[in-house]
Design goal:
The protein has 127 residues and is of the alpha+beta class. The protein is built from three helices and five strands. A hairpin with a 6-residue loop joins strand 1 and strand 2 (41-43).
C-alpha cells in the first residue's frame, strides 16, 4: 500500500475549502503573455499585440489594438526599451514567423507611443 502525504498550506495545516495548496496570491484576471523585448511575462492587458501583414513592399508590422486581427501575433510592452531590445534581438521575425521582416525601431516606437498617449498611461507606469 502506498501512502501519500496530503498537501499542506504554509502554516503546515491541511487546506480547507477556501484555501489552495501553495497558489495564494497568484490568481490572474486574464491571459498571461511574454514580451518579445524584455522576455518578461505580463497580463495581456499591459502589452500591445503586433501582427505582420503582407503588403506591396513586403511584410509590415501593424499594431493590433483590438487583438482580433488574423495571423500570428507577438506581444510587447509599450516601452521604447522593449521595442529596441526586440529589434536588436531580431525577435519580430522569429515570433511572427515571417522571413525577411525588417523593423525600424523608431517607427514602431512612435506608433506605440501614439497609441499609449491616446489611451493614457497604464497602471503602474510613470510618465
Amino acid at each position: 500500500m502506498v501512502q501519500r502525504k496530503l498537501s499542506t498550506t504554509r502554516n503546515g495545516t491541511a487546506p480547507t475549502n477556501g484555501e489552495s495548496s501553495g497558489t495564494e496570491g497568484t490568481a490572474t484576471s486574464g491571459p498571461i503573455r511574454m514580451c518579445i523585448g524584455c522576455r518578461q511575462r505580463a497580463q495581456a492587458s499591459e502589452l500591445v499585440r503586433v501582427v505582420a501583414v503582407g503588403g506591396d513592399s513586403g511584410p509590415a508590422i501593424v499594431v493590433d489594438l483590438a487583438t482580433t486581427m488574423p495571423g500570428r501575433g507577438a506581444w510587447l510592452h509599450p516601452l521604447s526599451e522593449c521595442v529596441t531590445a526586440a529589434v536588436r534581438r531580431r525577435a519580430f521575425a522569429t515570433a511572427l514567423r515571417v522571413a525577411g521582416l525588417t523593423v525600424r525601431p523608431d517607427d514602431l516606437t512612435e506608433l506605440i507611443g501614439e497609441i499609449t498617449d491616446r489611451e493614457g498611461p497604464s497602471p503602474g507606469q510613470n510618465r
